[in-house]
Amino acid sequence: MQDLEEKINKITKEIQNETDEQNKKKLEEDKDFFIKLSLLFYYYVVLVNNSELKENFPLQALGEEFSEESYGQLFGYIFLLQHTHGVSNIFGIISCYFKTRIAWLGGNKLVETEKVEELSPISISKLYSPFVQQIQVPIKLFLGDHPKKDRVSHQLDQTKEIKRFLFVSPEITHTDRTSNDESKLVRSLCSVFKKMYYSNISQSLQLKNTFMEFTRNSFKWVELNKISFTDDDENKDDDNTVSIEYVIEDIENKENYKKIYLISDLGSGVEGKAWLAINTQAKAFVIKFFDTKKQNLEIEEESKLWYDIWGIKTLVLEFNNERCLLMPYFKPITPVDYNKDGFKDRLMDACNQFSNSGYLHSDLSLRHVGKYKYNDEDNFIFFDLGLVEIIKQDAANKMFKNVTDNIEIKKKKKKFKF
């Protein structure tokens, strides 16, 4: 804490003496960064210097070691951010009572540079982690010499498993000091936080052929030979390619979902997280992983709602030993949809169907509205049925108002993003 205060005071003096406006602005940004950082360290410093805490602290905690599972989970989160969300140069921090380590993947360009911090590069050792985690959205899969009738089954059986290596720094404790008698922990964390700040999103990372393969009781990162992310004319009639099928249909045959691949993060909600996925027949669907508090009966009830309201069959299965709900994928609506003539009529049709089934969607917003074609007309459907109530009076009008109010807000802010 004292080191941070000295750093802030030093920058304050530099700001007062700086005449160049551009340099002054950068110094002010640095000062703001370290002030925010000092707040993070406040509680840590209080705890470490609390004599009562030290007296009552269990002695075995001092000998606590980092577990292989912890390293594996950290690898999974970093790899997920890089290959699903395209974040480059990611760092992780793993702490175990009085010990801390900084971790990253190979190829991190900020490890060897001193441009974004004052700390010298950290010497690292290589640690193998047996744990893994997650994926992306292709339009076509390339099958090589295998006939189209085999779909993607053959290629997905030939996937290459990703090697899991995690680079870690030596252990750092709160008592370690630098040659200048500064806290090594504070200085190291200041360094890594600033490196995190300078990390960016790389489109090329998002387009890699990296997927997470799930079975009933396991998951692993795998790599496919070749994937196309654009439906271009060059590959349209290629006999060695197969398109991902986005078909609205019942999901009911468990045999078709023994092995699946997550391909795109659809976001998180109050009750869990949803992913766009494909099975070994290249059919796309949505899989929802639930919060651990969600009971099996409630998951079954959400599956039942899909049939009661929309007449669509869904499946409740286990993947990686967790209960999940498998549902059809509906493309979310865009400004093109809600600016069309007749949109509100079709929206009201969906609200009426929902309420006529005896239910009210109590968490309905624009992001929960999907579309599909029927008799060459756009129709709308509400998904994410985790927060649905037994019908109340005027339920259809309430749901209709929730969506239309949401649209007006988006139009005013002009920030609607697909």
From TrEMBL:
Instruction: Indicate the segments annotated as coiled coil, or none if absent.
Output: 1-28
Q: Keyword Membrane: yes or no? A: no
One Pfam entry name = DUF5898
Which UniProt keywords are listed?
Coiled coil
Cite the DUF5898 domain residue spans from the record.
265-372
Instruction: Tell me if Transcription regulation is a UniProt keyword of this record.
Output: no
InterPro entries under this entry? DUF5898
Q: What is the name attached to this protein's record?
A: DUF5898 domain-containing protein
> Which organism encodes this protein?
Dictyostelium discoideum
